[in-house]
Amino acid sequence: MLVRSGATRRTLPVRNLLTSSSLRNPPRCLIPSSSRPLIEGQRFLNTAPESRPGTKKAYRALVGFERNLATAVSDVRIDGVSLENIPPVYQLRPIDVASTIQIPDEQPLPARGRVNQQGIPGDHLELLSLFDACIKVGRLERSVMVIRRIADMGGLKPLEMLQIYHTYLRARIARMEMGGEQKDTSDDVFKLYELNIHRRLPVRSETIGYMLKLSLLCSKGAKLKSRVDRYMSLLPQNTTIDLGDPPDNTAQFFGDAEPAPAPKSNIPPEVLATTQKGLGLTSLKKTISLFTQIPDGRDIANLSLAERREIQSRLEKDTVDAAVDRWREESQSMSEMGLSVSSPSLNARLYEWHMDLQRRIAQETKLAVEAERREKKTSDDLVRCQLTPYLLQSTPERLAAVTILSLLSLVSAFGVDRGVPLARIVHHLASSAEEDIRVFKITQSIPKEAIRSSKLREQKAKTLLKVARARDYYGTTKGGKGKTATTGPEKELTSDLPLPILEPKWPITIKTKFGALLLGAFLDTATVKVVKEHPETKELVSQLQPAFSHGSQLKRGKKIGVIIPNRALVEIMKQEPRGEVLARHLPMVVEPEPWSKWEKGGFLEYPTSVVRAKAQEKDQQIYIEAAIERGDMEQMMKGLDVLGKTAWRINRNVFNVMLEAWNSGQEVANIPPVNPDIPMPPEPESVDDPVARRVWLKAVKAVENEKGGLHSQRCFMNFQMEIARAFRDQTFYFPHNLDFRGRAYPVPTYLNHMGADHMRGLLWFAEGKKLGAKGLRWLKIHLANVYGFDKASLSEREEFGDKNRDNILDTVRDPLGGSRWWLEAEDPWQCLATCFELAAALELPDPTEFVSHLPVHQDGTCNGLQHYAALGGDTWGAEQVNLIPGERPADVYSAVANIVTESIDKDANEHKLDLAIALQGKIVRKVVKQTVMTNVYGVTRSGAKKQILKQLDALYPTLEADTGFEPIVLASYCTAKVFDALSTMFKGAHDIQTWLGEIGGRVCQSLSQEQLRRIAQEEEDAVEAAALRNSPVGKRAPRRSPAQIAIEGKKKLTLGKDASSLDDLKEKFLSTLVWTTPLRMPVVQPYRSSTSRVVATCLQHLTLMDTTRSDPVNRRKQLQAFPPNFIHSLDATHMMLSALESHDRGLTFAAVHDSFWTHATDVDTMGHVIRDSFIRIHEENVIGRLKREFEARFRDSMYLATVIKTSPAGKTIESWRKGKYASGMTARQELLLEVERLRLLKSEHLSERIKGEEMVTPASILESLGSSDAIIGAAEAVEAEAEENDAEAAKTSKADVDGEAEPAEDEAVEMGEQQAEGSGEELSTKFNTSLFAPRNKYFFS
């Protein structure tokens, strides 16, 4: 223990509780003052044993930190509320919109550089990932090269550079303590500190602690004393540092200090194995084959929790090893029979592939290591140098197995007889390898820890600091009251909290090169035996051919690389479907780990993120981590825990029927046949008719696509059947995570309750409950619902079960050979499961005593429209979506169809419109259902038109011949009518949807205050550079205001025309739409304009789409997606609230978005919960809170407004721009002029305010002359610009591709729309003027 002396020494607790501040990662977010750390009197937790340091009790808000204060529970306060008064977890908690999490925009990183002669890349993301990989494999000398390249390039904040240096220092300490480095060769690390850290970066106690530790490890005598004195003098006063157990030769610096207690080992004790007949833990290491060794009917759930967790852990960690063992065993057995290499068995061949690929990867690793040492490197050497530390993180054996497993899994999912895109395979292989490396490293660290000697264990690096300084943790004044903590740069440089560990993900370029290396090695080594008949001798001839080949296919007019399996391999895989799946695809045999961090929860070993986000989508991760840090994600994560705790089993009755149907190879319900009977169209007799031949080729391709689709579907179902068979007697669980909108999904890919009808029919609850009278009634109602009789009243649906008792019993007696009544149901497999359940209950003397396991569903009626109706207060719409009670369920689809029919009849009878006459009597419920369902989720008119066209073609195949109109024209006319009907029925909702779109358009065309500052700085730098070129040497121009910069820039700079300058500003639109759900989860839309990047690999050049936070947003996607994503976030909130309250009431709960499941006896209780949760959401002014949040989040931003040129305001603005003052001024300079005007108007000095009022800018003209008619809506302007860009792209495409255009169809569509709506004036950005307006003036007008 080292102590920096001072006038007064304060001892403070260790690991202080952080509830609101985001100080663990200061550069990432700015937390508003209202949610900062609490002042004195707002103290947390108590001194109960389970809450003291050293225990494993975790609190959501702690995020790795624990508080040890002598505080009574009654004193505990959160946001000013006593713990005794905290509402239940399923109650909504107040949200202060002024304290929402706000993340500053990411500054653009320096331009990407080339790979240098040492093989060090010039991209920041690649450098950070390479540095992390070098540290993990102990290549510290190379990591120093990476650090130097990062420092030379610049672009990182001081704390981010400190993170990198701290990681390096920790690695040096660990290597010294493990004896991997001579202590007399460590002077370089002290030089590194003096030259690179001390002179350039802020002083932090953590840094000093590492240097003291290094001094104690590798210095003696006078040098040791000198270094200790030097670093101790740099420590701030009243700082306590725990350096762990010091070496013996440092006792002189501690005097009579008491020795530190021996650290508790983090190694869990060995799990006691239980002896069982025919079942031991050693046999449970075989992944999915594990379950085949368990006696039929044996459930792992009967074991203890510790044993089940051990099994689950082994399942996750031993998947790869188990697969290799299985391949090896079959290969050895075949070898004993003399069949080894020539064996047709795929498992035997897989072992040969594995051995060959293992040798090839080992060879590649050796070449990569040699390339690092080579002074003059070739282009191949430079690529290998970048991949060396990644290859060394695993072993050739594991990499080879992961490659084979991942490739076969992906090929099976795509369909074994179809080519798989090369880019997809490369990325999939690299991602699988990255995940396996992370788990493999965790797994390998435990046994090393266990066998390490006690002396080495005592000397293990313990460099996490226990630093306590009240002003750094709480940011308060000396008395503990008054000012709150700052979150700016000053706070970043003074905080002594340990910096977070740097753990970057692999960037897309590294993944591409790494995946291409694995795939290339596999293609070169994997072979398959092909046996064919000789055409002349008729003898069977065998030959080893490549198992996969690299080819190309045309997709959407572009040639892409594909990997195609050998036909012989295709036949083998059809006969031997693969049963291996990686751990993340399997259910868990123990309850999932509770969620507590971004990647802490769900699986025990496999890292899974709490929110699904692509590697390049960093915004959502940053916001979610900040929300977790301050406890905002508590309810969402507890909701995920509730969903994960639901125990499931396979319904054996249904599984037996399904397996029989599957093995028959016939089409049963949604199971496709093995050999689908789809006749090929006859080839046209005339070879001279190109049109007929083109039609025939199109029909042939359609048949092939249909067959391929059915085969792919059967391949996917094959995985599901294999897993279901393995888990047929087990109790299992589905860990859940979220999408960026908050919707919950099970992580296991194949077997889960969100699958199709056959998956839902196959699963039931592991826990059973007696039906009771109410449960028996709901079971009968459920049968009617899954059969399709769901529009009748509840009493009529109950009678449906009684009337069909004979059909139910016949179904149970002989499902596949009887009347097959269940196959006529809308959901046949769920109907079959209900028949088994109901028949079993009816067999008892008292059916109400039957213990039921079947989930009974309560489905929302077009849930999105329900939320819109509640938001907009649409009574008529609310009736159509069953928000208002009725005798029987309302049918919104039929209601819309009726309105459309009435409108068409009116056009036909009163206006004699030909299109209306053609569609009379043809608009039924099915025609409009999909469009009504998806309208609330943002379907465009183009998409809706395709939906209606598909239904018209299916219902009326001869529509064109009967009416004389092309179906696309009729579909376009009908689409307009459907949209009109919805806007009439849900008027309030339609207005809200329009408002949300307008908000989205303004946000994604906005510039924040920080961006405006950068733009002003860029313009000032350019003006100064121009002034310096024309001024005497050494004379520096005085500092200018934004207005002066704009005027001088107009005179001295030539930045291009206004249009080009405006386009440059549009590239700076970085503001993505962010809002907070009622459960405090921040939602960040991930849509940005990605840039393409060509990466050269050993297989081919691949074009990748690379996206970063500094890329501009995709404005069209942002505004189109906002309304549906906002509704999805409300939908997700409703489901989570229902899950939390159902769990609190003791219900078993599962959900598929807006379909909620529980036991039959609990349906009534769950119904109350669902309704109460919905009401709690909409009791608040949801739209009002969203408005206030956006006002707070974007209050100082400016957005791009579009003004009609012919309006009075537009004419005045154009006249002003042609005047002497503004002539030649660019859009950037106009923007700076408006910034200056707003600054003056907000000034405290009257003279400046008067000056601001006298200034004339486009925005001031718009304020004085503008009206609602003068401004084009932001959403409308963005859409018009996007359509213009699409039209330009289409013209280019038509010019490049001869004969592909079909203008007649476009003209027909336009005709249909005009007849439905009337032609309107075309909106074009070319004929209007753009200007930047202050958001607070126009945002919510």
TrEMBL record:
<keyword id="KW-0548">Nucleotidyltransferase</keyword>
<feature type="region of interest" description="Disordered">
    <location>
        <begin position="1279"/>
        <end position="1327"/>
    </location>
</feature>
<dbReference type="InterPro" id="IPR029262">
    <property type="entry name" value="RPOL_N"/>
</dbReference>
<dbReference type="Pfam" id="PF00940">
    <property type="entry name" value="RNA_pol"/>
</dbReference>
<comment type="function">
    <text>DNA-dependent RNA polymerase catalyzes the transcription of DNA into RNA using the four ribonucleoside triphosphates as substrates.</text>
</comment>
<dbReference type="InterPro" id="IPR046950">
    <property type="entry name" value="DNA-dir_Rpol_C_phage-type"/>
</dbReference>
<dbReference type="GO" id="GO:0001018">
    <property type="term" value="F:mitochondrial promoter sequence-specific DNA binding"/>
</dbReference>
<keyword id="KW-0496">Mitochondrion</keyword>
<dbReference type="InterPro" id="IPR024075">
    <property type="entry name" value="DNA-dir_RNA_pol_helix_hairp_sf"/>
</dbReference>
<dbReference type="GO" id="GO:0006390">
    <property type="term" value="P:mitochondrial transcription"/>
</dbReference>
<feature type="domain" description="DNA-directed RNA polymerase N-terminal">
    <location>
        <begin position="310"/>
        <end position="645"/>
    </location>
</feature>
<keyword id="KW-0808">Transferase</keyword>
<feature type="compositionally biased region" description="Basic and acidic residues">
    <location>
        <begin position="1288"/>
        <end position="1297"/>
    </location>
</feature>
<dbReference type="Pfam" id="PF14700">
    <property type="entry name" value="RPOL_N"/>
</dbReference>
<dbReference type="GO" id="GO:0003899">
    <property type="term" value="F:DNA-directed RNA polymerase activity"/>
</dbReference>
<dbReference type="GO" id="GO:0034245">
    <property type="term" value="C:mitochondrial DNA-directed RNA polymerase complex"/>
</dbReference>
<comment type="similarity">
    <text>Belongs to the phage and mitochondrial RNA polymerase family.</text>
</comment>
<protein>
    <recommendedName>
        <fullName>DNA-directed RNA polymerase</fullName>
        <ecNumber>2.7.7.6</ecNumber>
    </recommendedName>
</protein>
<dbReference type="InterPro" id="IPR037159">
    <property type="entry name" value="RNA_POL_N_sf"/>
</dbReference>
<keyword id="KW-0804">Transcription</keyword>
<keyword id="KW-0240">DNA-directed RNA polymerase</keyword>
<keyword id="KW-0809">Transit peptide</keyword>
<feature type="compositionally biased region" description="Acidic residues">
    <location>
        <begin position="1298"/>
        <end position="1310"/>
    </location>
</feature>
<dbReference type="InterPro" id="IPR043502">
    <property type="entry name" value="DNA/RNA_pol_sf"/>
</dbReference>
<dbReference type="InterPro" id="IPR002092">
    <property type="entry name" value="DNA-dir_Rpol_phage-type"/>
</dbReference>
